[in-house]
What we know:
This protein is mainly beta and 241 residues long. The strands form six sheets. Strands 1-2-25-24-23 form a five-stranded antiparallel sheet, with no helix packed on it. Strands 3-4-5-6 form a four-stranded antiparallel sheet, with no helix packed on it. A four-stranded antiparallel sheet has the order 7-8-9-10, with no helix packed on it. It contains no helices and 25 strands. The chain is 0% helix and 54% strand.
Amino acid sequence: MKVIVFVVFLLLPFAANSIWEKIPGHLKQITASINYLWGVDKDDDIFTCVRPCTGDWVQVAGKLMQVDANDIQVWGVDASGHIFWKNVDDVLGNWVSVPGILKHVSASGNGWIWGVTNTDQIFKCKKPCHGTWIEVDGLLNQLDGGETYIYGVTSGNDVFRRNIDASNPWQLIPSRLKHITASGDDEIFGISESEEIWRCKKPCSGEWEKINGELSQCDATVDALFGVNSQGEIWRRSLAF
């Protein structure tokens, strides 16, 4: 059943020319496409909301611990590492299982699905990906794909990038981050261990700018940055800042 919640956004002036908007709900992780938000809560329940999203979250069948959306599909992994996908606008349909075991998946890369295992091994799969995973050298704890590059962070918070098809070696980007998102058009965003928010102009050589606020995880689209904090609160900020 779809429940509509009528709310007034809480607007916080973190910067002179921009504001964060609080979206009702509680999630541990969020992902955004051009038209939809998807997320999972602390119980691995799955939710989606049509953008701009005023809190009218709809629960989707299944359990996932992490999800990542592009403009066509949403991908996710469950607590056992099993991999699934469905169309990003599909609330009622079944999840499609994909062979493989991952702890984290990224569906936003141009032409490729990327993922990492519990031992931080890195894999890529050519879209539309039916489970033909190719191992890539290196170790990463979390990663996110963009139009040209794949970006990732290690368990020691080092930041790396390489071409989205892995046709060049990993390049170290000066920074210390625990989480990164590359799905915005012009910038990458990252979260530090102390939950500080940073942004860097693509392709990014280490010229980071701190953004006011605190988040534990974030995801960018062409026009907005979405994130959740350690309390599970959900926030949105325009990228016109």
